[in-house]
Amino acid sequence: MGWQIQNDVRTVQGEIQARLSRIFKNKIIVQSSGRTDAGVHSVGQCFHFDAFWPHSTSKLQDALNTGEQAGLLITQIRRVHPKFHARYSAIGKRYRYEIHVGFAPPWKARYCLGRDWESLDVKEMRRAAKMLVGKHDFRAFGATHGQGMENEHPVKDLRRLDLKVKGRHITVTTEANGYLYKMVRRLVGGLLRVGEGKITPERLIAYREEKTITAEVPTAPARGLFMEKVFYRPAELRSRKPPASTSVK
User: Fold this and answer.
1) Mean pLDDT across the chain, nearest whole number?
2) Ramachandran region of residue 150, left (φ > 0), alpha (ψ -120 to 50) or beta?
3) Which of 8, 37, 137, 157 is catalytic?
4) Is residue 61 part of a domain?
């Protein structure tokens, strides 16, 4: 049910904290680079926690991955600088969104958006994507949250938004210094409306300039979205020397 820990449902954060707490025999709290909604996938989520571990990081990784994976796999563990923070040290993120033109095969349907499109106008979608790139106020592509968006600065530097086509499959890749809540899915929703011929690229840009959330820019379903990479300041990824190995009880 997404990243953030919740009562009575399984979440990524909850599962990781439970595994770490069993290993360290102490309550461990993890801090992530950001929250992902239920149905969103990740190949590059990052989190940090503080604990004493006198062994190699590979042993901790093996311990975390032992048992039922349940849709979760820890792919890397490293010691980092004490000032490192998974969220506040981040300087950018990359996401991708997978689209299948037409109904997707069942074995792919969980990981992409497929509908009964006969075709999408990729040329116009690319033109719209190019027009969206840059440092702008993207509040029209955000979504209201439980606490609203008042604490999130709406100006984001959208550095990349491109489309790659392979057969009937389209991959949308985006990079920015940060994103508003559901911004990537709404960017994709807007591009899909352009591809369907329902709005023009110019109209999509006009929505951005109007800075008003509208149903004309829909939120694409979660299942096609992947968090691909989080970018960090190199200095905060540098670790101190690992502690000397000692016996602990």
Assistant:
1) 91
2) alpha
3) 37
4) yes
